[in-house]
Structures are given as structure tokens and as C-alpha cells.
Fold these 4 entries.
Entry 1:
Amino acid sequence: MASSSGTSSASFLLQNSGSEEDLQQLMDQRKRKRMVSNRESARRSRMRKQKHLDDLMTQLTQLGKENNQILTSMNVTTQHYLNIEHENSILRAQMAELSNRLESLNEIITFMNATNGGFGTEEPYTFTETTDGFMNNPWNYLYLNQPIMASADMLQY
């Protein structure tokens, strides 16, 4: 009996060590499988991260181009505004000068009407007569050779 119990325990140890080896191999296989899975997952994560970075770089380039277009458009618009403002300044100066001339001409007409035209006529000058017979009136020759002078620096607004 002793020998049979010793044999049975030896065979149990052999079976036990065989199953421990199988168990160890199974655990190693699972460990390798987990490592491969983790590596693959990490590789996919790096690829997603790289794709996100590439997308952000593309977006940065696109936004930079749009920003440059907006700046160019803004500069063109600003230059156009400055040109228009300059033209308006000249037109304001010309308007002021023409208004002064008109006022002077109206004063002359008023004076001439008060003195009966200065030519011994009894009829007063009227605006229609000055426009209809502009060249027939000798007073109008005084203003024919006077140019309209205006510059942008005359009136600063």
C-alpha cells in the first residue's frame, strides 16, 4: 500500500506539474494576446492623434489664408474710404468757394438793383436777365477769367 500511495502521489505530482505548465502557457498566451491588443490599441490611438493634429494644421493653414484675404480686403476698403474722404474734402472746399462767389454775385446784383443797374436804365436786374444775357452784361466779364481754386487742405473736417 505504501508503494501504491507513493506512486499515486508521484503521478499526481506529474499531472499537477503538467497542468501547471499548461496553466502557465495559457497565462503566457493570454498575456501575449493582451500585449498585442494593447499595442494595437496604442497604435490606433497614435494614428487618431496624428490625424487630429493633421486636421488642426490644415485648419490653421485655411484660417491663415482667410485672415490674409480679410486683411487685404480691409486694406483695400480703407484705401477706398481715404480716397473718397479726400475727394469729399475737395468738393467741400469747392462748394464753400462757389457759395462765396454766389454770395458775392448776389451782392453785386442787389447793389446794381439798388442803383438801377448802374447804366442809367430804369429797369432793375433780375436773375433771369443775368442768366439769359450773361455775355451781354459787362459786369460779368470780371468773373470769366477767374479759375475755381480749391484744395484738400483748405477745409479740414
Entry 2:
Amino acid sequence: MTKKISIILKQNYPQLGEKGKISKVSQGYALNYLIPKNIAEIANKNKIKHITMFNQIANKQKEKYYNEAIILKNSLDKINHICTNKKQGENNLFFGSINEKDIMHLLTKYTGKIFEKKQIKIQTIKNIGITDIQINIANSITCAIKLYILPENI
């Protein structure tokens, strides 16, 4: 019967798992392959305690980030729509276009939160009217807001 020992992975390894995972493998596999190639290290009480502490901190940060994203989504849902004025030309077209950067400034003005350009999904906007905007707040949390583009009085 082969003796199994506990190891902690130092890097992602497809057969065993992701970095920081504690696994039991045969002693020969660990001592002859994983440890010399710096893929893993032998687990002891202190190292296991250290890894679990880091995992707890990471989980708390993920939970905090998720809660902040939910609060931001709720505040965006209350807004429901944002308005901007553009100088109107012919055929309901306006001069220039509206891009993600313009939307970022409008959202910051309405919510006080700073957004990144990659969070905002829009198509090219060149017409006066109502357009839908998708905002990706977190990995699985999205919000839809209507953008009202109104003609500017001359």
C-alpha cells in the first residue's frame, strides 16, 4: 500500500487543481516530481493555517465586492434613465456621437461612482431619441438603463 502525503500546490496544475489547494498524493509522486519541479510543497500545520487564512481573506473580499455591486445595481435601478442634450442637425442626427466615455461621465454625475469604459456596452449612437445601455457591474450583475438624447435648444 502506498503512503499518501499532503501537499500544497504552488501553481495551477491540471491533474491536481489550482494554486493553494491542499491535496493528498503518493509520496513518490510528491518527492520525485512535484516538489523538485516547484509545483508543490509538503503541507504542515503552519502552512495549512497560512493557506486557510489567505482563503478566508479572499472570500471576505469577494463577498464585500459582491455586496458593493448589489448596492450599486440598486442605485442604478432607482435612476432608471439618464438624459443628455445634443445640438441637432438634419434628419434627427446630431453632431458627433455618444460613446462609452460620455456615458461614464453621465453615470458618475448621477451616481457619484466611477465606472470603467469596459463596463458599459452600447452601440454607436448618432440619432436623437431613446437608447438602451447595458452596464456590467460585476461578473454576473448587469443593469439596463435608458439614455434619453434630447435636442439642444438653439
Entry 3:
Amino acid sequence: MARSVSYVSAAKLVSMARGDPRLAIIDVRDEERSYQAHIAGSHHFASGGFAARMPELAQAATASGKDTLVFHCALSQVRGPSCARMFSDYLSETKEDSGIKNIMVLERGFNGWEVSGQPVCRCTDAPCKGTCAST
């Protein structure tokens, strides 16, 4: 069954993510993640190699009990939505019982997140441990 892709605002994502270990934020920005900040705890799957890494993402999400994935890029106008749709199609085509129920895109992307005053992280850990949030 194809999963629909919906959009979520930064404010709504903050309230959804608070204390919910089943939600994962997927950052599909490419090289700009290395010199810009990122959303604390986000997982980096660069859009340039995203198609090849979809099995890895599905396996990691399933293994860690994620049921909601929120994709974003800088503005969530091209890469974020494209990767979200591609991943949704991948799950439908492979018919994997991944447990992923919701695939979303962060409205206005990372830039909108940061401009709206949401916390960002500037660590260089890979993956980000999510303990570094600061504004």
C-alpha cells in the first residue's frame, strides 16, 4: 500500500518529537550539512546517494522502532519532498513490513526551522547524538 507524504510545520514537529522515540528526522541536504547547523538528533542521508541508501534507511528505521520519518533539505521544495516520495515508493514496491506509518516533509526545510528560532546543533558527530541543541 502506498503511503502518502504529508507536510508538517516546525512548531508541530517540535511537539511531535518531544519524547517520542518513534519519530526520526531525515536530513537529505548534501555538502551544506557539513558547514551549516542541523536539527539535533537528525540522521543524514544525502540526496546525492539517497536511492542507494534506501535499504539502509528502511533497515535502521525498522530496527529502532521508528514509525514516522520527517524528511527535509534546505527549503523542502525539491530534495526533501523528492526523497520522501522516493522512499514511500520504495517501501510500497518492496512490500517490507517496516512499521513505518507516516512519511512527512518539514515545511520550509532547515532554513525555515532555523529562522523560526527552533533549536539547532552544530556538532560534527556522525550520527548526531541529539544532545547538542542550542539556538
Entry 4:
Amino acid sequence: MAQNLTTRARAVSFSLVLLFLTTHLVPLTEAIWLNLPSSGTKCVSEDIQNHVVVLADYYVVVDEVPQPHQTPTVSARVTSPYGNNLHHIENVTHGQFAFTTTESGNYLACFWIDGEHKEGVGATLSLDWRTGIAARDWDSVARKEKIEGVELELLKLEGAVQAIHDNLMYLKDREAEMREVSESTNARVAWYSIMSLGLCILVSVLQLWHLKRYFHKKKLI
């Protein structure tokens, strides 16, 4: 009996640890609202690692518009860290984009109101941006694998653990890159300091030599 209680307590503790790691290390997404100005662009970005699925839905929020044709239309553009165009559409009230990342870095999504809409009136855009495990369709997975209940939850936990592992490895690689850049910068600064000190010593020696030569020429010493 005591052994069963201990095993159950360990299982509960393990579940709590997984829940904590999932909620703190795996980015949970929810829809955000962007207030688009009548002129100008509003952008959002996210630092995403390589080989990650990205899925997003967006639409113009209509708030008591008297006539449907007065609903503003927007344009959207999504670019990769190296400036590659991943999604571009104009004159829409809603849209969707999905892709798998091939580069690590900041992915940028920009939205703006189309020019034909009357000036001075902005718009509100709802954006649901999901990445990694959050972008996975678990209902389709459950139907395909013919699983439900506890098995599905365990599969979700397995995906969360894998996402945590991938995220930690990504952070480790980024930390190594930053450390390498920092060490390289420190080495360059050290060489620059040595060169500056050597140049100062050389200039001082030349000044002393010039003054001594000048005083000898004027027969002051």
C-alpha cells in the first residue's frame, strides 16, 4: 500500500514537472489584436529555430460597421530572417499562412491598410500565430492514430517534451554562438588596445627624438 502511494506521488510529481516545463519552456500562443494605423505598417516578429512548423490566421475585426463595403482591407507580408518572402497578399479582410522554417532567427509579419481605404480611419486585426507543437492538429492525429483519452494526452506530453528538448538545444547552440562572438570581440579589442598602446609609445619616442634634435640644433643643450 505504501509502495503504491509512493508510486502515485512520483507520478503526480512528474506530471507537475511536465506541466511546469510545458507552460514555461514551450511557447503557448493565443490570438493578439493589432491596431493598424490608417497610414503605416504594424509588424510582429518571433525568434524561431530551424525546421519548425508555423501556422497563422488573421482577420479584420469588424465592430458595428453599418455597411459591409466599409470594412477595411489589409495587406500582409511575411519574411524570413534573411529577407525571403514567405507570404504576401493584398486587399483582403482575412487570410492564413503556413510554412516550415528553413532558417533560424526572427520571422517578421507586417500588416497595413490598403491605400483605397479612406484616410484617418484605422483597423483592428486579430492574429493567431502558432508555432511548433501549438500548430499541430491533434484532432487529426487522434483520428489517424485511432487514439483518445489518456493515450492522446500522453502523446501531447511526448510532443511537449520533444519541443522542450529542441528548444533547449536551440538555446544551447545560440549561447555557444554568442560566446564565440563575445570571445572573438574580446580578442579584437585586446589586439586593438595593444596596437593603440604601441602607437602611443612610438609617438612619444618620436616626440622625444624630435625635441632632443631640435634642442641640439638650437644649441640649447
